[in-house]
Each structure stands twice: as structure tokens, then as C-alpha cells.
Predict the structure.
Amino acid sequence: MTSPTRVLVLNSGSSSVKYQLLDMRDSSRLAVGLVERIGEQTSRLKHTCLTSGDTREHTGPIADHEAALKAVAEELTRDGLGLDSPELAAIGHRVVHGGLFFTEPTVIDDEVLTEIERLIPVAPLHNPANLTGIRTAQALRPDLPQVAVFDTAFHTTMPESAARYAIEPKIADRHRIRRYGFHGTSHAYVSRATARLLGKDPSEVNVIVLHLGNGASASAVEKGRCVDTSMGLTPLEGLVMGTRSGDLDPAVIFHLARVGGMSMDEIDTLLNKRSGLFGLCGDNDMREIRRRIDEGDEEAALAFDIYIHRLKKYIGAYYAVLGTVDAVAFTAGVGENAAPVREAAIAGLDGLGLAVDPERNGVRGDEPRLISPESARVAVAVVPTDEELEIATQTYALVGMNN
């Protein structure tokens, strides 16, 4: 009997479940789907079987994650790809926060679940939803290996000089305060894919990865290992994002509380949901912001300039951290699709060996590609991220040899 080669990847959010079923013999996708608005009367499940090309949509109440995953299992069964298939090797789960305890993909047991639960105070929006997805999947297939792949794991290689905040260590350690970083699965995938694009091994290159979506983060990757990243204790630190402020003088919080009379919850909402591009100009969609700029909207133009200024600062900072840079890689929704962002972020950095070729930058595609001139000292690349494939690859590498 041949060993099972399929991996189901689950990304459980607070009110949604994204999923993909992959065959790891050739990393092909067999099915993809999304369940959204879980717990509402208007829940929606969209499922696509890629082996047949069929897409099905269902709307109506889905009470909870257990009901959502059972609905997903039914859709997979309709396509002959059910969870009871002997070809299913494992289920891989995205878990946002693994703290310092988890530095690599981990087969889930009771101890792992307990530790993920202990990390809820530093990831209150994400880890509870991740736990719900894991426990539901375990109930559906208790005999199957379940693997947690952590967003923070790739960043655990940061030296203490980068990971520590300059506050009293006893207090920091007691409350687990340090820079963890996020989007690690994407940064890991993109840094390796960039090395392949250059025809080199990841251990031979230094890459600055710019993951630019509604959430945005940068990382400095030295010879395949993360040595710095822009997000910190939470995903709030770092770059200007869709609705998050990014870097901020901490005294702003005290000022808003003392002078503005705002509660901690109000300040939290302001900085995480009403700041960034949305707070600056009322839009967090880069396409809409660019449209407004083209029409002469000064508010949108200023928001864009602030976004680019912060981005450019991080490119320069991580250039200094790495010493030598082989490539800068743009990825995620904005990074992959917004040519004006890439052009503006690199503009004026000729002295660092960075430049963008306008013609190459204007080409859209789904494959990794260089957008720098042939003569550029440092490569500038667009590398589409694939977090689901990365999760599946790490999951299968952990359990595949044992099946």
C-alpha cells in the first residue's frame, strides 16, 4: 500500500475557515474553499474542486466552527476527497502565536494545546479561533496527525538584541513581552523562493522581504534565518498598514488616556482598526487610494506618502542590519499587485544598488519575477506568497516519513 500524500490545510479565524487540500507528490491543489460569517444567519461556504473545476456556494446559518468543518467535510466527500480518505496524511493548522515555546512545526497533543491556550493573552483575537479549529478537526479525525504551523516560528531565530525591548528584563519575562513577529510562514516561503529565483541556495543569500497586504510586515533574512522583523509583541508594530498605525511613540497612548479621556479599549480600537491608511484618508484599499491620487485627492496622496516613507525607512534599516543585501522581495496583495508602491518604495535608493525597471515593474503575473534592471547590484523581485503550500510542506515533512 502506498503512503498517504494529501494534506488538508486549515486556517481558522474568529468567524471564518479557509482551507485547501493538496497532494504533496507534486504540491498540486485538489480543492480550495472558504466558510465565512460563521455564527450568523448569512453564513456562506464557497468550495471549488480543482480536479473537476466545479464550484459550489451555499448560504444560510452555520452555527459554529464544528458545523463549518462538518460542512467542509461534506463538500470534500462529494468530490471523492473526504476526510475519511486513506490518502489523507495529516491536517495542518495555521496558528498565529507560538511564543518562544514553538520554533518549528509541531504535532499537536494535549501539551501543545495547553501551551497555545496559555498564549491567548498575547494573541486574544487569533489563538482562540485557531484552537477551535484544531479541536473540531481532532473530533472529526481523532486518528489523524494534526500539525500546528506557527506564524511566529520563523522569527524565533532573531538574536536577543533584536527581539528584546529596552525595558526591565524581569518585568518583560514575567509578562512574555518581547518582539515575536508575525507573517512568518509567508516570510519563510518568500525568502526561499527568492533564493531559487536567483539560482542560489537560501543559505547563500540575504533578503529583505516586504509582506504588504492589509496587514504589513518586513523582515531581514540572513542566509535563510530571520534576524529582524517589523512586527513585535503584536501585529501592531512596524509598517503603516490598512487599519493599523504601525510604529508609534508609546506616550501617545498615555496622552490619549490622560488628555483625550479615552479608555484602553477605545485606544486599542483606534490603533488597530481606525488607523493606518484608513485612519489617514478613509480608505484601506490601495487601488482606491491610487484612484483618488490620480484624481488629485491630497488626503489620499499624503496617506500614500506616509505609507511609503515608513516602508523606505525599514528597507534602509534592514539593509544596515544585514550589511549586504542580495534581493528585496515584494509579496502579498499590495506587494504583488501595486506597481506604484514598489516603484515609490525603491525610488532614490540607487546608492544602495536598488532600482526598478519601469517596464518590468508594470508587468503582472503569478510567477516570481525580477523587476530590477539587468545591471542592478541588488535584485528587486515580486514573489507571490503561498502560505498554504508552506504549511502543507512543513506538515508533510513532519509526518510524511512516518506514514
Observations:
- The longest strand covers residues 28-36.
- The chain has a mean pLDDT of 93.
- The longest helix spans residues 298-322.
